[in-house]
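Hi Y.,

Following your request, here is the sequence exactly as I used it, all 277 residues.
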Amino acid sequence: MRKESVIEKKLLHYTGKAIADYNMIQTRDRVMVCLSGGKDSYTLMRILHLLQRRTNHKFELFAFTLDQAQPGWNDDGLREWLENRKIPYQIMKEDTFSIVKSKIPEGNTYCSLCSRLRRGIIYRYAEENGFNKIALGHHRDDLIRTLLMSILYNGEIRSMPPKLLSDNKRHIVIRPLAYCQEKDIIKYATEQMYPIIPCTLCGSQTTLVRQRVKVLIDQLAQDNPKIPSNMLHALGSVKLSQLMDRKQWDFKNLEKEQMIGEQKTDEEMDIFAEELF
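Below is the corresponding structure, written out as tokens. Let me know if you'd prefer a different format.
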């Protein structure tokens, strides 16, 4: 009988809770896990594989890895890891590395173009091969950092939803690690000794905005450890009436709504009085 570690139990609990809360995976789903070779996607694959076994294989799992032709790429360890666990997989080579390097000036952030190219390939492969769910390895800290980055640098309140219908309505993207903390994933990755494949694109950029936002949240959490979990909770507890989005509220005509409300109150009071007497 395989013994679970304490950290594995924790990750299984929070992943299972996220899947249940957002109805991410149903019976007979064909789930394509995007396995990049980093700690997050390995952990996602590992935890989903354990959950699949617990459910007696009620859903299908498949690992999709994109070889972006980065210098030094070596997926031998990844292949062995998957084959030892009998996880079906595909490693596809597409030279997006050269495109990103040629289009983005040195010193600028590669992430936006890189992720856009990668997303197009992933969506196409999933559609061509009949996978109805695409699983990504973003965790709690990715979600809250994205929220703060969006507010500070883009002037928008947005993040990464745990479950997303793509713009063309053909794909559902899920993030089962949405409740999991990065520090737990790091600890688990050390336990599991994953054959990590380093990224030579975003991994080579040490001045990323995302890194600065990470440091900021970590510093705030030193004084109040609840700040990261409060930020995650805020993503699911939006009070639209307390914001200032004119697309959500007709501020110009609130007075008319006030008058209608007053009229309704008068009518209700009249009805109440009639019932009394």
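Strands lie at 30-34, 60-67, 89-93, 133-135, 163-165, 172-174.

Thanks again,
Q.
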